[in-house]
Amino acid sequence: MGVIETLALGMGGAWASGVNLYGTVVILGLLNNLGLLDLPPELQVLGSWWVLALAMFLYLIEFVADKIPIVDSVWDAIHTFIRIPAGALLAAGAMSGLDTGMGDGLQTAIALLVGGTVAAGSHFTKAGSRAAINTSPEPFSNSIASVAEDVAVFGALYTVAFHPVVFFVLFALFVLLLVWLVPKIWRFIGQVFGNARHPSVAYAQTRAQQAGTGTGLPKLNLSGAGGSALPPSDKPKLPPE
Fold first, then answer.
1. Three-state SS for 215?
2. 212 in a domain, yes or no?
3. C-beta of residue 172 within 8 angstroms of C-beta of residue 181
4. Could you tell me where the DSSP H helices lie in the chain?
5. Residue-wise pLDDT tens digits, 118-163
6. Membrane spanning segments where (predicted)?
7. Does 66 score more than 70 pLDDT?
8. pTM greater than the 0.70 cutoff
9. Sign of CA dihedral 35, 85, 113, 89
C-alpha cells in the first residue's frame, strides 16, 4: 500500500470505529478476504473467520439496540471505552507498515494518539446527536439516524478502499462539521439535563412564559384592598336591641 492508501486506511478505520466498530471490522475483514483490500500484517487478524463471526454477531445486536430510544445512548456510553481504543489500535496497525523514519515507538505513539482522537471525535458526535434525538417524543428518528450512520460507515470504508483521495476530502468536511456541530449538540444537551437537575429553574421559566402570554392563573385577593370585595352573606341581619 502507498502512503495515501495507508493514511486513508488508518484515519478511515479510526473514524468508522467511532461510529460503528463491529460493522467496520466486518467490512475490512471481508474486503481483505475477497482480495479487494490488502490489510497490513498487523490487521490481518480482522480477516479471521472467527473474528468476523464474532463481529457480525455483535453488529446484529447493535443494529437492534441502536434503534431503541435511550437504549442507544446507554449502548454508546458503554462503547466509549471500546470504540475509541479500538480506533486507536486500527490506526496504529495501519501505520505500522509505513516507513516514516521516526522510529517504531514514536510512530506507533503518534498513530495511537491521532487514531484515538479521530475515533473520539466521531464517537462523541454520534453519541451527542443520539442524546439530542432522544429528546424528541417520536421513535422513528432513531431508526433513521441509525441507518444513516451505517450507510456513512460503509460509504467511508468504500472510499478508503477504492478512492482514498475522495475519503480525505470527505474527512476534511467532517472535521469542519465537527468543529461547528459538536458544541451546539452538547450545549443543547446540557440545557435539557440542567433543567432536569434543577426543577425550580424549569418552573421559573414556565411561569415567566405564562406571564408573557397572559395564560397565568389569576391571583385571589383576600385582603379586600385593591380588588373586589367578598360577596355579602345571605344571612339576614338582626335588628339592634
1. coil
2. no
3. no
4. 3-33, 49-65, 71-95, 104-133, 140-162, 164-197, 199-213
5. 999 999 999 988 888 888 777 788 899 999 999 999 999 999 999 9
6. 7-31, 43-65, 77-98, 161-182
7. yes
8. yes
9. negative
* pLDDT (0 to 100) of residue 195: 58
Q: Could you tell me if residue 167 is inside a domain?
A: yes
Q: What whole-number distance in Å separates Cα of residue 42 and Cα of residue 156?
A: 21
Residues 75 and 21: beta-carbon distance below 8 Å:
no
pLDDT at 23 (0 to 100): 96
* Structural contact between residues 14 and 115, judged by C-beta atoms closer than 8 angstroms: yes
72, 142 contact by CB (below 8 A): yes
| Residue whose C-alpha cell reads 497490513 in the numeric block | 40
The residue assigned the cell 475522495 is: 166
Domain contains 232: no
213 located within any domain: no
What cell numbers appear for 173 in the block? 468536511
Containing domain of residue 86, as a range? 3-199
Residues listed for the chain: 241
Identify whether the C-beta of residue 193 lies closer than 8 Å to the C-beta of residue 137: no
In whole angstroms, give the CA distance from residue 36 to residue 24.
Answer: 15
- Among the listed residues 52, 58, 2, the one whose alpha carbon sits nearest the alpha carbon of residue 28: 52
CB 82 within 8 A of CB 20: no
230: left (phi over 0), alpha (psi -120 to 50) or beta: beta
Secondary structure class of 41 (helix, strand, coil): helix
**What are the phi and psi torsion angles at 145 (to 5°)?**
-65, -40
Does 134 or 80 have the greater pLDDT score?
A: 80
Q: Say how many domains are in the chain.
A: 1
